[in-house]
Amino acid sequence: MRVCFKQAVLFLKVAVLSKLLLCALAIDNGVGRTPVMGWNAWNFFRCNFDETVIREVADAIVNSGLAGAGYKYVNIDDCWMGDRDENGKIQPNPTKFPSGMKAMADYVHARGLKFGLYSDAGNKTCEGHMGSMGYEKEDAESYAEWGVDYLKYDFCNMQDATGRYFEPPEQAYRRMTDALNATGRPVVYSLCNWGGDAVWKWGASAGNSWRTGIDLFAVWDQTVAQELALPNFLQSMMGAVRGQQGLAKYAGPGGFNDPDMLLVGLDGMYPYGIVQRCPPHVVGCTAGQYISREQWGKVGGLSKVEQRTHFALWCIMAAPLLLGN
Questions:
Q1: Quick check: 143 and 100 in contact, CB under 8 A?
Q2: pLDDT of residue 146
Q3: Sign of CA dihedral 62, 66, 70, 72
Q4: How much is the pTM?
Q5: Is 22's pLDDT higher than 80?
């Protein structure tokens, strides 16, 4: 009995020390101590948004009571960028944001909310807009000047045709970590390299959350995903859950595993990409062909019970809760 007790005490000490070590290695930017709660434009609007849409979303978050429940972040995803000026400073798309990005952030802040933006570690974003490669310092300074509170940092255009990285993900992400910290503005930093390079092992010392897998799509399990012939960069809700197994030990205050944004409130989504198998409803398709969102149309969608289960699981996993409806 005494031996068992000593072993139990030793195990507890090791567990506590391991957790303390993880906390000591966590990024110390003063924010993101709990999983972020808010909204992101991607799942519903994709690139079809402008400053009017974002203002309306901010108002809706307040008026619906979501802000009072803790949903504070209004995050713009890809496609907000215009060109760089003569000093290398990124400019917002003038058609989408004629009032400028600081005015957009001010509007969100005036409603007691936080403002988030998106960029990419490559020279182009996933949708082909200006990335931050080589301009990390300039972009971080712009974010601070505008009043950005959250940055989602993607990893498109950082691999060759064989899938080999142009540089180690950790190195690319830490470069932006240093640039953000140098501004003196606390910014929640979300790493989005889809679980590559075992990001959970080093993510807590570079950012506040890290994607643990590929993009989430509104289907329950892999059986349904296969029936729809989804491209291989999209996964089911249960696939994302299974991908979290064994990763809880890497999360803690200031740094969290991120299985991707919430699918609640969506009655389907528009997939796209190069297909390994043709979707049954797309006429004239051949394997290896790129199928656009317009060709594919809206498919999938979770039932109300599945959505509630999905939401509960994200809460249990201490994942960020970013609505996308």
A1: no
A2: 98
A3: negative
A4: 0.92
A5: no
